[in-house]
Design a protein that fits this description.
Elements lengths: L1 E6 L6 H10 L4 E3 H8 L5 H10 L4 E2 L2 E2 L1 H10 L1 H24 L5 E5 L14 E6 L2 H12 L3 H9 L4 H6 L3 E4 L5 H20 L5 H4 L5
Parallel strand pairs: 1-5, 1-6, 2-5, 6-7
Antiparallel strand pairs: 3-4
Helix pairs in contact: 2-5, 4-5
The structure holds adenosine-5'-triphosphate (ATP).
Adenosine-5'-triphosphate binds next to α1 and α6.
Length: 211
């Protein structure tokens, strides 16, 4: 299966775009969902987090995600520790899911694909892009955050320019969501064609003059 890594800054529209591929019957594997399952009660990663941060990191037996976010955004060392715990497990969890899928291509939604050296995990990088002021507006509205909180999140992510430079394909989600469908149709055709190419035998090898 051709692996399409779908990434983009917070609030740019990754989920919105992934849903459009899912409507076409294309499997979507979401790194955020895998990450959430990793810290469910009883999972070894949750035990490691409790051992590090103490039982106050739990609320009614479940991970207090807001509290953990607060701690790691304020302390780079803790953030590095948490990332080194979770990121390899997220990629491993995604790999296991992909192994069960049968489709010409799949969409792997990985918000921090480029920040976590995930380039080799995917065949192509698809970036959902929008201008920063639009992005800020959407995040503030959806998550009820103030400007300073949005600043902190954006500072922890790659810049828009760096992300675009790493893209094989770009979807622009600056305007009306209706404009996404046409772009997704075009990419769907491209990825189907590319997935076929990758299954065709190499003519140089099969048609070679070997006497
Ligand atoms: P996150 O990084 O937080 O997971 P995301 O990249 O998956 O976010 P979405 O959740 O798809 O982004 O979109 C962010 C918010 O912006 C949502 O509330 C969504 O409904 C809204 N949104 C997405 N695209 C558009 C658009 N073209 N016009 C207006 N609102 C939009």
């Amino acid at each position: 299966m051709l692996r399409i890594g779908l990434t983009g800054g917070i609030g740019c529209g990754k989920t919105t775009v992934a849903d459009l591929f899912a409507v076409k019957g294309i499997p979507v594997v979401d790194a955020d969902l895998v990450a959430r399952e990793l810290v469910e009660p009883g999972q070894p990663a949750l035990s490691a987090i409790v051992a590090r941060f103490g039982p106050d990191i739990l609320s009614a037996g479940r991970l207090d995600r807001a509290r953990l976010r607060q701690i790691v955004f304020a302390d780079p060392e803790q953030r590095l520790w948490l990332e080194s715990l979770l990121h390899p497990r997220v990629y491993e969890g995604m790999r296991q899911r992909i192994a069960t899928l049968a489709a010409p291509y799949g969409i792997l939604v990985i918000p921090l694909l480029l920040e976590t050296q995930g380039r080799d995990f995917v065949d192509r990088v698809l970036v959902v892009d929008c201008p920063e002021d639009v992005q800020r507006g959407r995040v503030k509205t959806r998550d009820h955050l103030d400007e300073a909180a949005v600043d902190r999140i954006l500072a922890a992510q790659l810049s828009r320019a760096a992300r675009l430079a790493a893209a094989d394909e770009v979807i622009s989600n600056a305007a009306d969501p209706d404009e996404l469908a046409v772009q997704v149709d075009r990419l769907h055709r491209l990825y189907l064609a590319l997935s076929q190419d990758s299954h065709e035998p190499d003519v140089l090898l099969t048609n070679g003059n070997d006497g």
